[in-house]
Every structure is written in structure tokens, then in C-alpha cells.
Amino acid sequence: MSTPASSARCPCGSGEVFGSCCGPLIGGGAAPTAERLMRSRFTAFSIGDAAYLLSSWHPSTRPAALELEEDVRWLWLEVRETVAGGPFDREGVVAFTAVYRDAGGRGELRERSRFVRDDRTWAYVDGEIG
Fold first, then answer.
1. What is the 3-state secondary structure (H, E, C) of 12-67?
2. Tag placement on the chain: N or C end, fewer CB within 10 Å?
3. CB 51 within 8 A of CB 117
């Protein structure tokens, strides 16, 4: 897995190019909303960037290490619902479906993810699968 070119369509499905969507966030920028952070985390999964996934995880729930499955290819993302999570909120929820392909075929991950904003930084807390 490799990082997309700045001019390539962003893997998160926003319709924007990587260089003006998830690229700056994965490069160290701050997400303005919980949804933008969630989209950048999907992109990180799709390009295999475990370091970004760990850095965007809230310290209270962050695992010590993260090993990504190399045979999983993340295909697309659908954001189903966003509750709060805006630039002036402290908490937010993003419900999504992420479609993937692995050795067993095509599958879907459906999750309601919780996010918190400390100071100006959004972080992933946890998610409820289903």
C-alpha cells in the first residue's frame, strides 16, 4: 500500500483530491471535525498507515501497538450519520460503513465511532460495531 499522489482522488470518498483532503491531516494537520478525522482514519487504513491511526487515537483507549492486516483492501467509505463533532463541539459520533475485500471476499464494517476534542485536536475514542 502506498500514499496517493496529491492530485489523486482521496480514498475517503469525499470527492476531493488527497492533497487537499486527508493528505494534510495524515501529514500532521488537525482535523476540523470528527467526520474529517474519521475519513482520514479510513484513508490511513486504506494506505496502511498504522502510525497515523495510533496518533489519532485518544490516549485513554489507544492500544500500545497496531498491526494492520495486509490482505485487507479497503475499497470505499459511506458516512451514514454524524452527530455533533463540529469545530465548536467537544464530542461527536460518526456512523459509517467501510467496504473491504480480503481473502474471503467482499465484506462491510459498520461502526458508530465516538470522538472527543481536546483543545483543538479531535481524537478517536472507540466504536460500536454493528
1. CCCCCEHHHCHHHHHCCCCCCCHHHHHHHHHHHHHHCCHHHHHHCECCCCCCCCCC
2. C
3. no
Summarised one tens digit per residue, pLDDT across range 56-110 is 999 999 999 999 999 999 999 999 999 999 999 999 999 999 999 999 999 999 9
Residue in 84, 89, 52 with CA at minimum distance from that of residue 68: 52
- Three cell numbers written together for 24: 494534510
Residue with cell 500500500: 1
**Other CB atoms closer than 10 Å to residue 125's CB: what's the count?**
18
Cα–chain center distance at 43: 6
Residues 27 and 67: their CA atoms lie apart, in Å, by 20
| Alpha-carbon gap, residue 58 to 126, rounded angstroms | 9
Length of the chain: 130
Triad 78, 90, 92: Cα angle to 5° = 20
Going by the DSSP 8-state scheme, the letter that residue 80 receives in this structure is: E
Question: How much is the pTM?
Answer: 0.96
